[in-house]
């Protein structure tokens, strides 16, 4: 049994901006700009990049170039390329592009599942069974050992239903692992989580499934993004989703700000002496180009304020 | 000896927006609007309000109405009115207004002290001795028992010098307590603190001076405001400075956002089941009036996103 050590000395970051960030942007980022951007990101020490989503181009027109992006980006040793797949067809397209990981998504609550995916959690689980079969029978997976992750939305609360019982979350995690899902991402989709709740749930899943890689996915909707990440890390979590510049959001929660910001998360953990593997200066340089890439300001704070080691010249008196 | 219990079940908030927030605003908020605002704030369950600063009107013109404000606001049982005083003259003016508490301010670093107050830490300590003498000889203090607090700026780092050694901070705290200062506020003036550093220093001061009320004052400059508050609370801290809407900043750190936001702090702790004593709904109503009061948008997030218990109507399919 793997020993669960609270407060890991190393963490790894899954950069989700190219998928979770771009999908709700007003304008399409040209394919070659996406590729250049992801290629820059993959040199910074990020462990994993969620590069795109193999969704219907009608559903998410911003990511209609999924295959082009994945087949054109530079693949680097130690940087896994993961993609979101919503169904069997998307899985087949993704596997054909030699991805390292696929990320399935379902909701922990009925109404969010129906609103976002037109599926209840149980219907999602059924579909996952079909997707897993495709993966098992695919030559791509057999050759390369594609990792299969599932993201569980509304784990910490549903914007339509409110609280999602922890027992329901644990039941769904158990079903996911039972199906053969290899990693589970617990998502605070609309920023409803608080640090006490995060600590409780993270301790519960790590205790029950010490072999399963759990990733935590936070939004900074109510300012608690980094506090929740801190609480998860204190419980022993070492894998985080985050989004450059804090891009992202949720179409069902107007006014909600985006995902927890990668450079702010890296800055906090590095300041604390936790090894993120990321070259923060290189990451900040890329973050500074975001307003040009997407055409508007972004919520990330360290890129504006500078790192906490920044020095000012004292005023002359 | 008072027992230091980590993770207090109750915390108390010192609302600093009327002083720390307004002092750097571009425009003067009319006296009667300040009074109405503070009167509203004092009904919400905040334990303490830093109502103004008895500084030279030339230095901080926005707070030139300090005496009028303090003598005109309603005084309510259980809500202490504290004011910043920079020197003996300010102390005399403040005591004449029957304040409950005075807050002295000094820096832990030489260059910030010289830039902000034209005094080294040692010069500040000398001045505090003179201020304490005035307090001891004042009829106002003898009748009413005015509490004397000192805020230690740049405790977690100086924007000009960088790191401030923990040993230097502890030395200055010891000197403050030795002088007769009753409470000490540890200030992260330009948002340089990280949760690991906060935990260490809070544990150190609570262990060494278990009888002294310590308050923590954070800025959200690099997004870590709530994470730092969480770390302080986990170390046993139960008193926090915060600023409605996240007003505030630092004139020497351009681009830096403001103080940790009161309503976001209250929202986090109440979500965790920690009693802040504050009526969050009432506080959010007042926070929503801030853009009108000061003429611009503010950084607070919960007022925009709604509390985490907010429900949305599912979209019709």
UniProtKB/TrEMBL annotation, chains A, B:
CDD domains documented for this protein: DRE_TIM_HMGL
Residues in Pyruvate carboxyltransferase domain copies: 11-284
GO biological process entries: ketone body biosynthetic process; L-leucine catabolic process
Keywords annotated in UniProt: Lyase, Metal-binding
Gene3D superfamilies: Aldolase class I
SUPFAM superfamilies: Aldolase
Listed InterPro entries: Aldolase_TIM, HMGL, PYR_CT
A single MF term (Gene Ontology): metal ion binding
Family statement: Belongs to the HMG-CoA lyase family.
Protein name from the UniProt record: Hydroxymethylglutaryl-CoA lyase
Species name: Vreelandella aquamarina
């Amino acid at each position: 049994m793997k020993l669960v050590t609270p407060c890991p000395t190393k963490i790894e970051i899954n950069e989700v901006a190219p998928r979770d960030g771009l999908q709700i942007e007003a304008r399409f980022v040209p394919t070659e700009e996406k590729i250049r951007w992801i290629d820059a990101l993959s040199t910074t020490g990020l462990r994993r990049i969620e590069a795109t989503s193999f969704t219907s181009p009608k559903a998410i027109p911003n990511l209609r170039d999924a295959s082009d992006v994945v087949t054109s980006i530079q693949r680097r040793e130690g940087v896994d390329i993961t993609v979101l797949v919503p169904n069997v067809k998307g899985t087949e397209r993704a596997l054909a592009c030699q991805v390292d990981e696929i990320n399935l998504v379902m909701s922990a609550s009925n109404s969010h599942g129906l609103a976002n995916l037109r599926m209840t959690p149980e219907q999602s689980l059924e579909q996952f069974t079909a997707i897993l079969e495709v993966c098992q029978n695919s030559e791509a997976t057999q050759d390369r050992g594609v990792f299969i992750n599932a993201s569980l939305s509304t784990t910490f609360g549903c914007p339509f239903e409110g609280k999602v019982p922890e027992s329901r979350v644990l039941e769904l995690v158990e079903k996911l692992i039972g199906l053969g899902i290899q990693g589970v991402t617990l998502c605070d989709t609309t920023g409803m989580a608080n640090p006490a709740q995060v600590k409780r749930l993270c301790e519960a899943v790590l205790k029950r499934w010490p072999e399963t890689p759990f990733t935590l996915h936070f939004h900074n909707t109510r300012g608690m993004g980094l506090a929740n990440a801190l609480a998860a890390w204190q419980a022993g979590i070492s894998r985080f989703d985050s989004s450059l510049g804090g891009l992202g959001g949720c179409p069902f929660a107007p006014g909600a700000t985006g995902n927890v910001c990668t450079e702010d998360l890296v800055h906090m953990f590095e300041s604390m002496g936790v090894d993120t593997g990321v070259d923060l200066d290189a990451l900040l340089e890329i973050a500074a180009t975001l307003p040009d890439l997407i055409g508007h300001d972004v919520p990330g704070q360290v890129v504006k304020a500078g790192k906490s080691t920044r020095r000012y010249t004292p005023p002359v008196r």
